[in-house]
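Please fill in the sequence for the structure shown.

STRUCTURE ENCODING:
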């Protein structure tokens, strides 16, 4: 069975692409009794408020019909920003050489949070250089990741 994030991704991706944008990622956060569904969009140029409004209007109607998330939630549509979250392996590959913050699902060497430079990305792992030491992380074990203050345009 697919997670709510995977279901939302399947539902909204065709609409986002039809609007000439890229679906960068989807995040569903439960904060107490409140729930936030974040849709990150990107494109070759800059994402502006008009892009976010268009996507929000289009996918809001879709999500109301498909109802992939139980209960009430707030829908947020935005660009990934400078400290953009990374969801997919190909996104990590676009930022080889940049610093990233990673939070793992389960502790590794007694820690869940790591900061380092992306060295290499393979089929299912991300290699992180942390002060000269290389750490291999399974992509499936990464709960959350984001670029640390990068103004560089990624290689696509």
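FILLED IN BY: designer on duty
SEQUENCE:
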């Amino acid at each position: 069975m697919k997670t709510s994030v995977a279901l939302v991704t399947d539902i909204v991706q065709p609409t986002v692409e039809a609007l000439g944008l890229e679906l960068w990622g989807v995040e569903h956060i439960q904060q107490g009794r409140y729930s936030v569904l974040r849709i990150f969009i990107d494109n070759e140029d800059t994402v502006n408020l008009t892009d976010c409004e268009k996507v929000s209007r289009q996918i809001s109607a879709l999500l109301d019909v498909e109802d992939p998330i139980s209960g009430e939630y707030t829908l947020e549509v935005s660009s990934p920003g400078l400290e953009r979250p990374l969801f997919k392996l190909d996104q990590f590959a676009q930022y080889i050489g940049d610093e990233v913050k990673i939070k793992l699902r389960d502790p590794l060497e007694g820690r869940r949070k790591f900061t380092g430079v992306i060295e290499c990305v393979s089929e299912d792992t991300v290699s992180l250089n942390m002060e000269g030491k290389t750490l291999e992380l399974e992509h499936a074990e990464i709960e959350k990741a984001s670029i640390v203050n990068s103004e560089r345009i990624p290689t696509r």
